[in-house]
Each structure stands twice: as structure tokens, then as C-alpha cells.
């Protein structure tokens, strides 16, 4: 990973930086598959020809290539696409890269572009990502009889974790409860510090066949109705529940064997919903998990030691791959200042597209299945 945040470089430069760092770790081993993901594909003259340009920059024109996109879940999709391609036996070693350039555009433009992941009928009535996230948050708080104070706590947790991560947008910039409570309203009950930041950045990793210190144990995907009005319940994400069930089954593991979780908290209350949907705690117990310190680095199951999307920053396509990368770093004992208290054996990463319409769960472990 390069540093997330406001960067002067363009999309290809950001992706090449992360890819170069990943390739340093494998020496002269050959890459025969390049899998890339970006949602917005901003370039100086419009959308970038991301895959061939990056392949040329990295001198990987002889490799096979795939470009995928699933809104904010793109990073998760890139990893799953690479893993399934290697599992087929057709390829030996893949370079996986997800990147986004966002800060060169006005906030209003980015907000409109992100709305492309919503249903057209929602967009036609003026809905935005924060507006629909606020509806989900309000329903969650009402269902479990909670106050907005619990989502303030989730934000301070995210920023505290991000403050320890040198790659994070908010490295060395924690936030207090007072700062969260007094930040400007975006779509109540969500305020500015409940929402992820517009960021530039890229993540890259090398995935190869065989066992290693961070081995793929399980993969799962799940989908739900795109329109919120068509969903049975708004206080939970069915797509995460389906993806988790499938990932646990393919890994032959249960939720009790997960030692840490990286979840897609594009809005801080979503972090609490996700750990409930993953089975780490029960319905409505997410806030207590944070209040009691279970999500801390030395907690029962640390949540988002990287800072998560709120603390790490949110270059849309890159976030889902950053979650997988963080789990790998923790398993390898290479997370540095944001290492959890004990080296984990099993870690889980969850990525989310839009408002939970297509979600991904990836389980990695230090031992081969």
C-alpha cells in the first residue's frame, strides 16, 4: 500500500506505486495474471484504460489480464477473481491491484458518481449514499433501542486505529467523542466524522498457488435487492450473512475461530452491523462490543486494526483489497504499530458494494486447509 489520502499522483501512478511495493516481495518470480479493479477510473482526459496502461507500466504485457468492478466492493471482487482463477489451475501467480483517484474532483461530482451504485429509482428521487446510509442507521438504532452515542464511539475507534497505521489517510489523527458529536450534519443521524473520507490510494498484493503464511481458506459472496424498499429488513445486511455462511462453509470453520476482522465501515455504524452479520456477536450487540473493548487491538476479536474505511480512508475500489491485505499482514506478523495483541491464526475480511447489494467475505489463515 501507498499512503491513502489526498495525493498529487494520477490513477496509474498510484496503482504502479502499490504494485511495485508488492512485487518487491517476490523477487524474480513471474506474474502470469494481472487482476485490476477501479470504479471511477479518473484520468487527465477522462476514464483511463486502466488494465493495459498498468500492464505496460509494469512490463506485464505477456500476462493474462482481468479488470473487474463492483462499486465499493471492487477490491473484494479483484481478490476473489484472482483466487478463483488460480484455483482453476490455469495460472500460477497473480498480481492483484485496486486503485482510485478521487480528490481531483469536486465533492458534488464524486457524490453523483457514487450514486451509480444505487437503484435508478432511488437516484431519480435525489437519494445519495449518505442519505440511504442514514436510513439504515436510523432503523438500526430504533430496532435495538440505541442512541446516537454508540455510533460516535465507533467513529473514535476507527480513528484511533487509523492513527497507528502509516498508510492511513488519518495517520496520527485520532478523533475525540466531542469532535465527532460536534462535526457538521451530513444526513442525520450521520455527521461528517461518521462518514468515510474521499481519498486517493491503491493496494496491491501477490497471490500464488500453494500454502503460505497467509493462505486463502474460504471465499463467499452474497447479494440482496438493490433498492432498499425491496428489502425485508434494513438493520442487517443479508448479503453479508450469505457471504459469511458460504465463506465459513468453504473454509470448514465457524465464526468462533476468527481471531480478527476487517469490515467495510464506509459509515461508522456499519461496522457494528457487519460484526453482527458475521456472527462475531449477536444482533444488537455490536455497540457493546466496542464499549467493552472487545474490538480493540488486545480485545477478544479485534475489529479494523487498520482503521477500517473511516480511519484508513476510502479510495472506493481499493478499500476491499486493503481489508484483505491487512488480514494478511496480521497473519504474517508484519502489521507494525497496528498489530493486534496476539498473532492470529485466522482472519476475516468483509467488503461491501453500495448499500450492501453485493458483499464479499474472505477468510485467510496461517495453516493450509
Briefly summarize what is shown:
With 369 residues, the protein is an alpha/beta fold.
What does this 3D model show about the protein?
- The chain is built from 13 helices and twelve strands.
- A four-stranded mixed β-sheet has the order 4-1-5-8, with helices on both faces. A four-stranded mixed β-sheet has the order 9-12-11-10.
- By secondary structure, the protein is of the alpha/beta class.
- The longest helix has 17 residues, at 316-332.
- The two termini are 28 Å apart.
- The relative contact order is 0.18.
- A hairpin with a 2-residue loop joins β6 and β7 (190-191).
- The protein is globular and about 55 Å long.
- The chain has a domain at 11-104 and 200-205: Peroxisomal Thiolase, Chain A, domain 1 (3-Layer(aba) Sandwich).
- α1 (11-24) crosses α2 (50-57) and α3 crosses α13.
- It is 37% helix and 17% strand.
Features:
4-stranded mixed sheet, globular, Peroxisomal Thiolase, Chain A, domain 1, 369 residues, alpha/beta
Helix-strand layout with pairing:
Elements: H1 11-24, E1 33-37, E2 42-43, E3 46-47, H2 50-57, E4 64-68, H3 74-87, E5 93-100, H4 107-114, H5 120-124, H6 129-144, H7 149-162, H8 177-182, E6 185-187, E7 190-191, E8 201-208, E9 215-223, H9 238-251, E10 260-262, H10 268-277, H11 286-291, H12 308-312, H13 316-332, E11 346-353, E12 358-365
Parallel strand pairs: 1-4, 1-5, 10-11
Antiparallel strand pairs: 2-3, 5-8, 6-7, 9-12, 11-12
